[in-house]
């Protein structure tokens, strides 16, 4: 099992708690990455939103790509996985940008391809927002164009959204960056089967994770494509000395402080996301259904459950927690040895 973590470009991951010391600042994110690398974390995912999904529209959020680029420069081993939403990045320029960052990173830079879900954010930033199925068609074409620019000269492409003829985009990356992606709808899974190297899951029960992994493996085989290079899952982890302490922390972070604001945000998310399971109000206390795997308890309890996910095919856990510096260290110190023993 490999372990990654989410870079806190929004600051706290907690919708209901105001005293989390996780900060929305470059200095905090930089120190977190350096510490995480030394603790043995393998990857950091840098999420991309221009409005703060956790604390509300007026709260700060840092630019994912500026952060990812800077993290490449201050780390030496950890993989930098930058989220990319096609609507917000001109594809030919982004192909060159990725190639350049990948060279700086010596192959440690990867892309998490996201179809986007937040219509209100797009409106505020003047970005067109297509329907769900069209967004996945755009994402598939966008990835095909990226890979074309990375491998062909001159490159030509004629699709629904993109047209290029005899285009040059040099240099080529020494090794094509890995493409991660996650999606649960039928069209999402069908598209990801074609273009992604690795499949990412929202947090889910053991049965849900097993179903998705088995389904994606079967789709890949049916398409006559090489197997996925791996499967990862988002998790929110709570590790304490006793189960009672862990459950008390769960109760603290899931107690809704302002129901009206919470309900509005919840409805905004669920109405624009075509998910195959219902997200409970409790699970919405953190992002990406991180509480659903219930990696909550003592180090021994959490490690035992992680091993069950590993048997189901999950090879990477991307961790959210609070307070992040302290909790990432606690997890590395107490859980890593039990999982890897």
Brief synopsis:
It contains twelve helices and twelve strands. The protein is of the alpha/beta class. Strands 1-2-3-4-7-8-9-12 form an eight-stranded parallel beta barrel, surrounded by four helices. It has a two-stranded antiparallel sheet with strand order 5-6. The chain has a two-stranded parallel sheet with strand order 10-11.
Structure report:
With 341 residues, the chain is of the alpha/beta class. Helix content is 43%, strand content 15%. The chain contains 12 helices and 12 strands. It has helices at residues 26-39, 64-74, 91-104, 119-124, 132-151, 186-195, 206-222, 243-254, 259-272, 299-312, 324-334, 336-340, and strands at residues 2-6, 43-46, 79-84, 109-113, 155-158, 163-167, 179-181, 198-201, 230-236, 238-239, 296-297, 316-320. The strands form 3 sheets. An 8-stranded parallel beta barrel has the order 1-2-3-4-7-8-9-12, surrounded by 4 helices. The chain has a two-stranded antiparallel sheet with strand order 5-6. The chain has a two-stranded parallel sheet with strand order 10-11. The longest helix has 20 residues, at 132-151. The protein is globular, with a radius of gyration of 19 Å. The model has no long low-confidence stretch (mean pLDDT 93).
Biggest pleated sheet: 8 strands, parallel, barrel
Any idea what the radius of gyration is?
19 Å
User: How would you describe the shape?
Assistant: globular
- SSE topology string: EHEHEHEHHEEEHEHEEHHEHEHH
């Amino acid at each position: 099992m490999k372990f990654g973590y989410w870079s806190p470009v929004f600051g706290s991951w907690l919708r209901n708690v105001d005293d989390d010391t996780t900060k929305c600042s470059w200095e905090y994110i930089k120190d977190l990455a350096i510490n995480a690398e030394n603790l043995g974390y393998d990857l950091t995912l840098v999420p991309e939103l221009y409005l703060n999904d956790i604390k509300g529209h007026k709260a700060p959020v840092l630019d994912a790509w500026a952060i990812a680029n800077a993290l490449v420069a201050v780390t030496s081993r950890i993989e930098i996985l930058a989220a990319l939403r096609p609507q917000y990045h001109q594809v030919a320029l982004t192909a060159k940008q990725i190639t350049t960052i990948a060279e700086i990173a010596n192959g440690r830079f990867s892309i998490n391809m996201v179809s986007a879900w937040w219509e209100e954010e797009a409106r505020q930033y003047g970005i067109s927002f297509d329907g769900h199925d069209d967004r996945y068609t755009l994402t598939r074409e966008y990835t095909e164009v990226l890979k074309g620019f990375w491998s062909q000269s001159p490159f030509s492409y004629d699709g629904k959204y993109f047209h290029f003829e005899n285009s040059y985009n040099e240099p080529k990356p020494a090794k094509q960056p890995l493409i991660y992606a996650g999606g649960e709808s039928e069209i999402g899974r069908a598209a990801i089967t074609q273009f992604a190297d690795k499949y990412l899951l929202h947090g889910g029960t053991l049965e849900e994770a097993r179903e998705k992994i088995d389904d994606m493996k079967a789709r890949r085989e049916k398409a006559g494509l090489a197997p996925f290079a791996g499967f990862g899952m988002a998790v929110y982890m709570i590790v304490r000395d006793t189960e009672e302490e862990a459950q008390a922390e769960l109760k603290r972070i899931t107690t809704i402080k302002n129901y009206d604001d919470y309900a509005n945000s919840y409805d905004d998310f669920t109405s624009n996301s075509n998910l195959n399971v219902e997200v409970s109000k409790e699970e919405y206390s953190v992002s990406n259904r991180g509480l659903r795997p219930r990696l909550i308890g003592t180090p021994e309890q959490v490690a035992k459950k992680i091993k069950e996910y590993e048997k189901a095919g999950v090879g990477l856990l991307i961790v959210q927690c609070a307070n992040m510096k302290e909790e990432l260290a606690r997890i590395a110190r107490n859980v890593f040895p039990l999982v890897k023993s």
